[in-house]
Write a structure and sequence with these properties.
The chain is α+β, with helices and mostly antiparallel strands and 395 residues long. It has helices at 49-52, 63-72, 104-114, 117-133, 158-161, 165-170, 173-188, 205-237, 241-262, 267-280, 290-305, 307-320, 331-338, 341-350, 359-376, 383-394; strands at residues 13-16, 19-26, 31-33, 44-48, 76-81, 98-102, 143-146, 148-149.
């Protein structure tokens, strides 16, 4: 252990279909092995969480949250290694020097929650023997502080590792390959990473997130360059009024891209662009427009998210007016004081009351608008709302 601790560790890996999962053996609360030695104390195989979650829909920056969720159930654990250990092919912050690992039960849990049906079947085909052999393992602790590597010369020969009859019967050809790889690692571990294509860039979240974003930006810019070249060709080949309007819209979008990259994109710029796009085409009727339905969905979510703030305003208003609850301000004043302007704007245009020239009609129908806002936000203020609400609930 003393000499090996200074050598970068290359974990053995298990090929589960196209997925390659690196693993180690946990010997006790503070020790681990890279080779399996049946003559020693029982070993618990633990599988690298980064490999288990690779090629899933879960973003890298969200991995810690999922690891913590599975750790609470005893399926995952964080191994914090002594600073003497380094990892070949893995970039780990030296300040923490920790990695997330999963038990065999944890792999199955993740697979049936996040993998496709075909991937689930692959996991079952390849790992069911390991699952059976570890069926009685205790749940993992939330974390372990690892300071000792127990691999020794006696466990580096394949014959000795396969002497136990029961183990020989359960080893299939793939498992033998994994055992051999484990032995080769302990014999030839010199710090060379070998095939780096399988390496996982497991670095700090900030660094990894930046690298991911940078790669995405480079890809986007390359794609944008090609699209601009294509746009130039189209401009040369088309020259009618409709096409001119389309190019004005495209130019507006490019301005937004420029402002966005400079960090100067303002709400007024975005507003103008959105309105231009909405008015650029006929997007179908209100009964069948996917665009209108999507905008309505987004707007509804924004209004729903404001409910807590609205409730606080309403409660403060009731406390202030408790002595004169029967003598409330006019409906338009109440609506303006308690509800977001966007809600009123939507309703006024929806009800055809947006014309400033028709102030008398708007004034007469504002109580209806206020009632709608009270019901939609689940905040009853006026007497009419309380009476109608009770009547509707009793039906």
């Amino acid at each position: 252990m003393s000499t090996w601790s200074n050598t970068p560790l290359t974990f053995p890996q298990w090929d589960v279909g196209p997925r390659k999962i690196r693993f180690i053996y946990l010997a006790n609360l503070t020790s681990f092995r890279l080779t399996h030695c049946p003559k020693k104390s029982p070993l618990v195989p633990l599988y690298l969480g980064a490999d288990i979650f690779s090629n899933t829909d879960i973003r890298v920056e969200n991995h810690p949250r999922y690891h913590a969720k599975f750790a609470k159930k005893g399926y995952a654990t964080k191994l914090t290694f002594s600073t003497a250990f380094r990892f070949d092919g893995l970039r780990v912050p030296t300040t923490t020097n920790s990695l997330w690992f999963y038990s065999i039960q944890g792999i199955f849990r993740v697979a049936f929650e996040l993998y496709s049906k075909q991937e689930q079947l692959t996991v079952m085909d390849n790992l069911q023997d390991v699952w059976k052999s570890q069926i009685n393992d205790s749940p993992l602790e939330l974390n372990y502080n690892i300071s000792i590597r127990l691999d020794s010369e006696v466990c580096k020969s394949i014959p000795e590792m396969c002497q136990e009859p029961k183990k020989v019967k359960t080893l299939n050809s793939q498992q033998i390959g994994v055992v051999k790889e484990s032995v080769d690692v302990s014999q030839t571990d010199t710090g060379s990473s070998g095939d780096t294509s399988a390496d996982h860039n497991y670095c700090s979240l900030v660094e990894q997130s930046f690298q991911t974003q940078l790669k995405s930006i480079q890809t986007t810019l390359s794609s944008l360059k090609l699209k601009l070249q294509s746009l130039e060709k189209k401009q040369c080949s088309e020259n009618n009024a409709y096409c001119t309007q389309k190019f004005k819209t495209a130019s507006l979008l490019l301005d937004n891209i420029d402002w966005c990259l400079d960090g100067n994109l303002e709400e007024k710029h975005l507003t103008q662009t959105v309105l231009t796009l909405l008015g650029a085409e006929r997007w179908g009727s209100v009964y069948s427009s996917h665009l209108i339905n999507s905008v309505a969905c987004w707007l509804g979510q924004q209004f729903h998210g404001a409910n807590s703030c609205i409730s606080q305003k309403v409660e403060s208003f009731k406390v202030e007016h408790i002595e004169r609850i029967t003598d409330l301000p006019p409906a338009d004043q109440l609506a303006t004081e308690l509800f977001p302007e966007a809600m009123q704007t939507l309703m006024l245009h929806w009800m055809g009351l947006c014309d400033e020239a028709n102030l008398e009609k708007r004034h007469s129908e504002y109580p209806i608008l206020l009632l709608i806002l009270e019901f939609a936000n689940h905040n009853l203020i006026t007497g009419a709302a309380h009476v109608l609400y009770s009547s509707l609930i009793c039906r």
